Amino acid sequence: MITVLFGPPGSGKGTQAARLVEKLGAVHLSTGDMLRAELKSGSELGMKAKSIMEAGDLVPDELVTEIVATQLGNGTPETSYILDGFPRTLGQAKSLDDILAELGLAVDKAILIHIDDEIVVGRITGRFSCGQCGEGYHDVSKKPAVDGVCDKCGASDFQRRDDDKEEKIRNRLDAYHDQTEPVLPHYQAKGLLVKVDGYRSMDVVTQELEDLLSANGN
Ligand code: AMP
């Protein structure tokens, strides 16, 4: 089963995708995570993407499409995937259809986690994570129990993403509205799009997503 997860930055789609893969035994494909890994490793692709990502713009379609195609090609026809952050343009959506068709597969469900821009800005500017285990925190809504110490692994090495500053978030929101929202009708026309309200707690949203995906035999 192939599920694509849409939502503006800060809608919680990364967290939800991580929870769903655990609960449903699917593979999480996050193009943002894959690009950050390329950047960290200093690869040629990472170097090409660096300044674009730092500005909050979208990396060219062919770069991201290539890494997604490689990952999908490594699976079996039975592998379930949750795609998080891809496709982000109409061109990527069409390439995804082609890549999957070659593998005898197709997108089964597209889920949009909807949330307004101002809520997004508040959510993202406060977020940080443990540099050791990746556990996510927030200045207001999820502080570590002991200030400066990760609840999960005890490390004191917290980090904030460079692109989580307000000006860059606004740029990422513009990219979302201008380039990613126009992808939604592609899935709506196929009857695959479901809209989920992202204002509620993470747990409530996870439950709704789980119900939606389980209902489809995942
Ligand atoms: P994310 O972690 O999904 O918010 O992605 C972080 C950044 O990586 C984005 O702001 C883009 O610069 C880049 N990126 C991630 N996925 C894509 C994609 N599918 N197409 C283009 N750029 C992407």
Element string (H = helix, E = strand): EHEHHHEHEHEEEHHEH
Order of strands across the biggest sheet?
2-3-1-4-8
Helix content: 40-55%
- Strand segment count: 8
N-to-C span: 7 Å
Class from helix and strand fractions: alpha/beta
**Any ligands, ions or cofactors bound here, and which?**
adenosine monophosphate
Radius of gyration: 17 Å
Chain-averaged pLDDT: 92
Total number of helical segments?
A: 9
Sheet bearing the most strands, described? 5 strands, parallel
- How large is the share of residues in beta strands? 15-25%
**Low-pLDDT segments:** none
Could you say which overall geometry the principal axes of the C-alpha atoms support? Answer: globular
Describe the protein.
The chain is an alpha/beta fold and 218 residues long. Helices cover 47% and strands 15% of the residues. It contains nine helices and eight strands. The chain has helices at 13-24, 31-41, 44-55, 61-73, 90-102, 117-125, 166-180, 184-188, 202-214, and strands at 2-6, 27-30, 81-84, 109-114, 127-130, 136-138, 158-159, 193-197. It has a five-stranded parallel β-sheet with strand order 2-3-1-4-8, sandwiched between helices. A three-stranded antiparallel β-sheet has the order 6-5-7. Strand 5 (127-130) and strand 6 (136-138) form a beta hairpin. Helix 1 (13-24) packs across helix 9, helix 2 crosses helix 3 (44-55) and helix 6 packs across helix 7. The radius of gyration is 17 Å and the shape is globular. The model has no long low-confidence stretch (mean pLDDT 92). Bound molecules: adenosine monophosphate. Adenosine monophosphate (AMP) is lined by residues 9, 31-32, 35, 52-53, 56-59, 64, 85-86, 88, 92, 163, 172.
